[in-house]
Specification:
Butyryl-CoA Dehydrogenase, subunit A, domain 2, Butyryl-Coa Dehydrogenase, subunit A, domain 1, about 15% strand, 12 helices, single chain, 9 strands, alpha+beta
């Protein structure tokens, strides 16, 4: 493994850090999340058209940068520092990779160039609260997360003229502002039960998207209702390929999310350090107290470890065998570090840190919100350990 970043990767980080520092202060973030889109659309166009962020992982043949998960992880680490609300994660880390992996040549040519240029934003819609399960980050009975042929979830029905979807998907990241939806739906009934992915235009008749209240406003979520909505099968009718693509996308997305959480944790730590330098207790700077130093030192170690794990996971997605499935473990470590850093920041800011409008609360809510969406931490680790066979008895050994 070569741990050094290339000049291009360093440039991505430097340019984005400067832009975020200039245009994404806490007041700008709070204003952006209260808009109809849930993000600053002008900033998104800058990120897309001038910096090419949504196209970082898209092949050059489709107008993208032809990069790897590492470039996207570095970009999200920088946006994570300021909790920049944008459709980058939903579009570039969840929807676009599925279109690239499963789509036909016509589907790739139709959608990937528009995503890479920022003309189209996309979102992955899965039924209920099953996003982590659909991405292979948590365990469940195969197919159950998509409805399993029973009432609920999203169902696909095909007649002689077209394919239509019925049902509802919750917790769709940036689904209310997306132009294109990648929808996981159950098909085949009981006789040939399977889960496939479908492309649905957000402005198609029968598609109703409503933004939901979320603990973390910087991570907008929507409820998508599909009422006889016309859809297009993504790729071919191969449930095995869909499951593999979702798992591969989940591993890459987890690495990207880990980098984003590590960036947020590092920013939270910096704010806490600044706070204890300014606060005084008994006539002394709070930062001079040994207890405060020890607590901050523990957070520093956790943040650095999370950052290293995120970098390794991003690199591992590009290894020769495809992936080492390090994403879930890196995400668990990063979410734990962010939770710890945010909790310490709230406490070390004193009474003001517990106020809902304080900046520290943004990071605390991001930590809690991401665990609700992708965790909890112990579930990520348990599933990764089970998948690696750590709890499986070897021949001749006791279980």
């Amino acid at each position: 493994m070569d741990a050094a970043f290339t000049a291009e990767q360093d440039e991505i980080r430097r340019t984005l850090r400067e832009l975020v520092a200039e245009r994404c202060g806490p007041d700008e973030v709070k204003a952006a999340v209260r808009t109809a889109a849930g993000h600053d659309t002008a900033l998104w166009q800058t990120l897309a058209k001038e910096l090419g962020l949504p196209g970082l992982g898209i092949p050059e043949a489709y107008g993208g940068g032809g990069g790897t998960a590492t470039e996207l992880a570095l970009a999200c680490e920088e946006t994570g520092r300021a909790l920049v609300p944008s459709p980058l994660l939903a579009t570039a880390a969840l929807a676009a990779p599925l279109i690239a992996r499963l789509g036909t040549e016509e589907q790739r040519a139709a959608h990937l160039p528009r995503i890479a240029s920022g003309e189209t934003t996309a979102a992955l819609a899965v039924p209920g609260t099953s996003l982590a399960t659909a991405l292979g980050l948590a365990d469940a009975t195969p197919g159950d997360w998509a409805g399993g042929g029973r009432a609920g979830g999203v169902q696909a029905a095909c007649d002689s003229e077209a394919l239509h979807l019925y049902g509802q998907a919750e917790q769709v990241l940036d689904g209310h502002s997306a132009d294109l939806l990648v929808v996981a739906a159950h098909t085949g009934g009981f006789a040939r039960s399977r889960t496939l992915l479908y492309l649905v235009r957000a402005d198609a008749p029968g598609v109703v998207a409503a933004r939901q209240n979320a603990l973390d406003e910087t991570r907008p979520q929507a409820r998508i209702e599909l009422r006889d909505a016309e859809a297009e099968l993504l790729g071919t009718d191969d449930a095995g390929a869909v499951a593999a693509a979702l798992a591969a996308t989940g591993d890459t997305a987890a690495a990207v999310l880990a980098a984003e959480a590590a960036g947020a944790a590092e920013a939270t730590l910096a704010r806490a350090v600044d706070a204890v330098r300014l606060r005084e207790r008994s006539g002394r700077a709070a930062g001079a107290l040994q207890a405060a130093k020890h607590r901050l030192a523990d957070v520093y170690v956790a943040v650095r470890a999370a950052r290293s794990a995120a970098y390794y996971a991003a690199w591992a997605t590009g290894t020769a065998d495809g992936r080492e499935r390090a994403g879930a473990l890196a995400l668990a470590q990063a979410l734990e570090a962010l939770r710890t850093a945010a909790a310490e920041a709230v406490q070390l800011h004193g009474g003001t840190g517990s106020a809902g409008e304080h900046d520290a609360q943004l990071y605390f809510k991001r930590a809690a919100g991401d665990e609700l969406l992708f965790g909890p931490v112990h579930r990520l680790r348990a599933h990764a350990a089970e998948r690696a066979g750590l709890f499986t008895a070897q021949p001749g050994e006791a279980a």
